[in-house]
């Protein structure tokens, strides 16, 4: 039996997001209502209903990273936001020993700074 979450993740892996027309198809495949599928889709932060920007930056806001400056790093990263760069937070990237940590298009950065994030954004741009 295919789960709603797994189906939505598969759609997003293929398209980069979950288009509106996929909700009905996932509901049918999972023998669920469209409302159930929409509920799962909107509950999980990592699922998107719109195409992603060219670059996504996620700054860890977990306790270990906060202890070494994650809040200030989030403010610095927010200044780098644009139509092509989205800045978001996450509560653990599993890189606590090298905090503050962030991720730029899936690339993990330890001991991140505003400058290292800006450099990673430039490298990640198409």
Give the helices and strands, then pairings.
Elements: H1 4-15, H2 20-29, H3 34-43, E1 55-60, H4 63-66, H5 70-78, E2 85-90, E3 102-104, E4 107-109, H6 114-124
Parallel strand pairs: 1-2
Antiparallel strand pairs: 1-3, 3-4
Describe this structure in words.
The model has no long low-confidence stretch (mean pLDDT 95). Strands 2-1-3-4 form a four-stranded mixed beta sheet, with helices on one face. The protein folds into two domains: 4-43, no CATH class; 55-124, Glutaredoxin (3-Layer(aba) Sandwich). By secondary structure, it is α+β, with helices and mostly antiparallel strands. Helices cover 44% and strands 14% of the residues. The termini are far apart. It is built from six helices and four strands; from the N terminus they run H-H-H-E-H-H-E-E-E-H. Helix 1 runs antiparallel to helix 2.
């Amino acid at each position: 039996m295919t789960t709603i979450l797994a189906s939505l993740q598969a759609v997003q892996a293929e398209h980069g997001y979950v288009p509106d027309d996929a909700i009905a198809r996932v509901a049918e495949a999972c023998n669920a209502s469209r409302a159930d599928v929409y509920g799962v889709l909107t509950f999980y932060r990592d699922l998107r209903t719109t195409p992603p920007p060219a670059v996504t930056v996620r700054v860890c806001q977990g306790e270990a990273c906060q202890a070494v400056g994650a809040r200030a790093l989030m403010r610095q990263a927010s200044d780098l936001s644009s139509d092509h760069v989205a800045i978001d937070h996450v509560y653990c990237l599993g890189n606590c020993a090298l905090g503050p940590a962030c991720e730029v298009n899936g690339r993990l950065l330890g001991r991140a700074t505003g400058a290292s994030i800006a450099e990673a954004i430039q490298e990640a741009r198409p």
